[in-house]
Specification:
This protein is α+β, with helices and mostly antiparallel strands and 248 residues long. The protein has helices at residues 12-25, 38-45, 49-61, 80-86, 90-95, 115-121, 168-175, 192-198, and strands at 65-68, 72-75, 101-112, 128-138, 141-151, 180-189, 205-215, 218-228, 234-238, 243-247. Strand 4 and strand 5 form a beta hairpin.
């Protein structure tokens, strides 16, 4: 509670909302963290119940907190419905097409960021990272190969996670609050290792989706998804005021 600070800008309910929002967005309060009660916030900031209620109601409307009867208020997990549009959810992608999803971790290594990783994130070399290679399948056929780097100073719990029950992307969505991401899509030819993992011919056309994700200014993860080009296409539908995209 002592760490919550008002910024003095605007109505009190907005200041309280921003104080709580900063804790969530900056990652200080992870999903599932209990948020101070209305009564506690009223006492700390000398606010009325209506003022505090309005601040928390707006945070709930934005999907940052969940207000549960008898359990109080907690930090919400990122909304999967929204995340699917911006962050590729491989299980949802496969199961949404009516096929059976499965995955296997092909390689897992903890080490230090090399020059290429440091350049990717624009960080000093030597930071601890977890490298993962994962094969996702649909009805037993290779669907996509995932090569991922997780910054362990940002997500230390990943060092002990074996990713036996959940693939890395799903695990991160459920356990880590991200605030921005960057996608790049390109066409590449499958190399020997990629062709073997995807069960396609060397040189076959593939779709490469590269993504970096941050929590504020702190990098969280970088990932490369390699799809067999002949099995996938990206489709988007959008308008001048709202839009959505999907992969088909």
């Amino acid at each position: 509670m002592a760490a919550l600070r008002l910024d003095g800008d605007g109505p009190l309910y907005q200041q309280i909302g921003r104080a709580v929002r900063r804790k969530i967005v900056d990652g200080a309060w992870a999903p599932g963290t209990k948020v101070p009660s209305e009564h506690a916030l009223m006492q700390q900031f000398g606010a009325s119940r209506m003022t505090v209620h309005r601040a928390l109601a707006e945070l709930a409307a934005d999907g940052l907190i969940e207000r549960r009867r008898r359990l109080g208020t907690i930090v919400a997990a990122p909304r999967i419905e929204h995340a699917v549009l911006d962050i590729l959810s491989i299980p949802d992608e496969v199961e949404g097409s009516g096929r059976t999803y499965a995955f296997a971790v092909l390689a897992r290594e903890t080490g230090r960021a090399d020059a290429a990783t440091a350049a990717l994130f624009r960080i000093p070399g030597g930071r601890r990272v977890l490298r993962l290679r994962v094969r996702h399948t649909a009805d037993g056929m290779p669907h996509v190969i995932e090569d991922r780097i997780i910054l362990l100073d940002a997500v230390p719990e990943a060092a002990q996670e074996l990713f036996a029950a959940l693939p890395p992307g799903t695990w991160l969505l459920r356990n880590v609050t991200w605030t921005s991401a960057e996608h790049a899509i390109s066409a590449v030819a499958a190399g020997r290792a990629e062709a073997a993992d995807l069960r396609i011919a060397v040189g076959s056309p593939c779709l490469l989706v590269e993504r970096r994700t941050w929590q504020g200014s702190a990098p969280l993860t970088a990932v490369r998804f390699l799809y067999p080009g002949e099995r996938h296409r990206f489709v988007g539908r959008f308008g001048p005021y709202e839009g959505s995209g999907r992969k088909g």
